[in-house]
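Standup notes
- HV: blocked on the assembly model, inputs below
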Amino acid sequence: MDMIGMAIKIAILIAYAIIGTCVGLLFMGIGRKIIARVHNRVGPPFYQNFIDVAKLLSKKTNISHGWIFDLALLFSISGILLTLLFLPIGGAQLLSMDGDAFLVLYLLAIPALGFALGAGASGNPNAGVGVMRALVMMLSYELPFVITLIALMIYYDTTSLATIVKMQSIDGIKSWAITMPPFMIAAFAADMALQGMLMEQPFDIPVAPHEIASGPMVEFGGKYLGSLMLYKAIALVAETTLFVDLFLGGGVVMHSGVMAAIINFFVWLGLIFLLFVLSILIAASFPRFRIEQAFGFYWKYEAIIAAISLIWVYIMVIK
Amino acid sequence: MLDIIFAELIVAAIITFFVREKLAAIIAFFMSLLPLLALLDWASNYGFAIINLGIESHMKIYLAGVTLHLAITPLSWFFALMILPLFPVIMLFSYSFFKENDGFFALMLLSLLATFGILLSRDMLSLFLFWEMMSWSSFLLVYRSKDRNAIMSYLIFSVFAAFAILFGIIILWHENSSLLLSDILNISGKPGFIAIASLITGFAVKAVIMPLHAWAPFVYSKCDESFVAFLAGGLSKLGYYGMFLFLFSLKGVDILQSYMTNVSWNYLLAVFGALSAFFATLIAILQDDLRKLLAYSSIGQLGYIAIGFGIGTPLAITGALFQAFNHAFFKAILFLTAGIVAYRTGKWKISELGGLAYKMPFTFMAALFAIFALAAIPITSGFAAKWLIYEAAIQQKYVFIAPIMLIAGVGAFLYSFRILYGVFLGENRHDNVEEAPKSMIAALFILVMPLMIFVVFPGYMLDLMKPALQAAGMESIAHTKFAIETSLAKYNSIAVLITLMVAMIPAFIIYKARKHRVTSFEDNYLAGEPYELHKPSMHAANNFYKPLKKVVLPYLEPGATHYFEKIYNGIKCASNAVRRVYTGYVQDYAIYVVLFLLFIVGWLIWI
C-alpha cells in the first residue's frame, strides 16, 4: 500500500475512534435523561457525561493500589478501541477484513480482563464478588449469543463480519438478516444477550450499586473511574454495532459514492440509537435478577430460542 | 548418533541416581539438551522430504532376535519440538525445587529416553516397547506421591491403555504380517475397525479424553508439580501423537470408514472432545484446589485437540497441532507456577492463598501470560490455534460442536480469573513470602518465549507443521508470516498487535496526565469502617462461584468417575465372591479335589 493510502486509512481509524467515544458518551447522557423521564424526574442534561468524564480525568487526587491496578486503565481503553476498530461501522470496513467475528468476541475480553485485573488488585472483597458476577453473566449470555452467531455464520458461509455485512446489503433493507423468519427469532435471543452485554437492568448484577457497592469499580476514582466511563461508552457503541452488523446489515442501505457513505453512517447511528433506547426502556421497566435467575434465563429459555433458529437455519442450509 | 544419545541418557540416569541433588540437576539439565541438539542437527543436515521416504532408518537395534527400526519423520520432528524442550526446563526448575535427590532426575531422564524412543520408532514393536518404558518410568514418578488414589488409578488406566494398544498392534500384525510403520496398512472391514478403534482408545487414555480421564485429576493434583508439568504438557501429547500417526499418517480414518460407511466415526471423536472441553471446563470452574483446577482445565484444553482431529480437515488438524504446541507450553508454565506457590507458601487451596502478585511479580507475569494463552486472548498465540479449530467447525457446519466449544472457551475466562484473583490478587495474606529462586523464574520465561514468538508470527508455526501435514497427504493452509487465511475469513496478527499498541497511546496519555498516589492495601473502602478496627477478611475467594455452583452442580454430579467407581465396586464384589472358595478348611479342599475328579471321570465317560 502506498503512503498516502496508509495515512488516509490511519486518519479514518482515528476519526472513528473519536466518533465512537463521543457517540457513546452522548448516548449515555440521553439514556440517563430517558430513564429520568420514565421515573417522572427532570434528569441531568444530555451532555452530562462529557462533563463527568472531563471532571474525573482532570482530578488532582488519584489513588492507585499498585501497577496491576493501573493495568485496568491501560487495557480497558486500548482494548475497547481495538474492538471497535475491528467492526465494520456503517459501511466503513475499517480493520474488519483482518479479523472476523470470533476475533471480535475474544477482543472484547481484553478490556474486560484488564478491568477485572485492576479490580482484583484493589483487594476489596466487593470488587472480587463483582467480577465473579460479571464473569458468570458473561458465561450466561454468551451461550445464546454464540448460537445465533453460528446460525448466521453457517447461513452466509463465512465468519467475517465484513462479508456478512456485504451479503446483507446486496438488496438494501430487503436482504437484512432480520427479515428472514429464523433470524427474527435469533435476533430476539441476541437482543436479550445484548441486554446482558450492556449490563443494563435486569442484568446489571455485576455492578448492583445497592448490594455490593458498585462491584468491580468500588476502588476506582479520578482518572481510573474516568477511563472506565470512557470504556463503558465505547463498549456501548461496539456492542450495539456488533448487533447491527449481524442482523441489520450494518446499516448499509446504499452503495458507492460519498452520499451513500454519509447516508449509511446516519442509518447506522439511528439503528444503534434505537437498540440503545430499546435496552434503556427494558432497563427502566424491570427490576434486577438474581445471578442464578439470570443464568437460568439465558441457558434455558434464551438458549432454546437460539437453538430453534440454529436448527431451522441448518435445515435451510443443508437442503 | 542415536545409539550414543540413548547410551548417554541411560548412563546419565544411573549417575544422577547416586549423586547429590544439585549436581544431579546440572547433569540432568545438560543431558536433556542432547536430544534437542540432535533434532536441530537433523533439521539442518537432512531436511524432511528424504527422511520420510521408505524405511531407511538411521538406526536398527537388534534385541533378542527382533529388529527395532528408529528414524525421524516430519511428524515426530514436530512433536519432538513441542515435547522435548520441556525436559531441560523442568530440570532447571527442579534445581532448587527438591530438598534431596530421591531418584527424580534419574526417572525423568528415563522418561525422556522413552519419549524420544516413541517419537523415533518406525515399527509398532519398538513403539510399544518404548511406550511401556515411558509408562513405568512415569508410574514410578507417580509412585513418589504416596497417594493411593493417584497410584492405583494411574496404574490401572496405564495397564488398560497398554492392553488396548497391544491388542490393536497384534491384530494389525496378524492381518498385515508387517510391523513397519512405513508399510501401508493393508486391512479393512471389521478387523481393521477393531484394531484402529482399540489403538485410539489406548492413546485416548494418555490424551485424557473425557470418559477415560478419571486418572488425571488424582495424578495431576498429588504428584510433584515439576513432574506434572511434563505429564500435562508432554505426555498427553504423546497420546495425540499416536492418534495422528494411526489416524492420518497411516490412513486409519479410511479403515474406520470401510467398516460402516454410513457412520462418521471421526465425528464421534470430535463429540467426545467437545464434551470433555465443555464438562471439564465447568468442573474446573468449581474447584478450590489449584492443582485440581489446572488438571480439569488441562482436560478441557486437550479436548480441543481431539475436536481438531475429529473434524479431520487440514484446517482443523492445523489448529489441533497448534493448540497442542501451545498447550505444552502454557500448561507447563501454570503447573510450574503452582509448584512455585506451593514451594513458597506450602498451600494449594486457592481460598487460603492471595495477594502474591506484588510479592512475586515475575512469577505473576509469567502466569498471567500463560493464562492469556489459555484463555485465547489475541495477544498470545493461544488465539490462532483455537480460531483455526472454530473456523474448521463452521466450515464443516458442525452445529453441535461449535457452540459447545465456544462456550467452553468463555468458561476458560472464569477459571482463569479464579487463579489470577484467588492466588495472585486480592488480600495480601503472606507477609514474608519472597520471589521464587532465579532458576525457577528462568524456567518460566524460557517457556513464555514460544508463546510470544508465535503470536507475532503464526505463519512460522504453520511452516513448522507443514512437512508433517504433507507427509500425511494434506495441504497446508494459505498463510503469510503474519496472516492466516481460510475460505471463511482471515486473521492478521500484526494488525491486532499494532492497533493495540497504537490504542495504548490515548490510554497512556490519560494515565500520565495526572499523578497518582499508591496506597497500601489496608486503605480500602469498607463502608466507613477503619480496617484496623476489626481486620475483616478481605479475600472473597472461599466458594467463589457459589451462584454458578448452585445451578450447575446437580447436573454434574453423576460424572464419569461415578461409573468407574461402580465398576471398581463390582470387581471388588466379584473378587470377594471368588475369595470365599478359599475357606481355609482342609475338608473343603478335599471335597474340591473329589468333585474335580468326579467331573473328569464323568466327562471321560460322556465322550
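- HV (later): unblocked. The longest helix of chain B spans residues 314-345. Residues 562-606 of chain B form one domain.
- Next: hand off to the docking folks.
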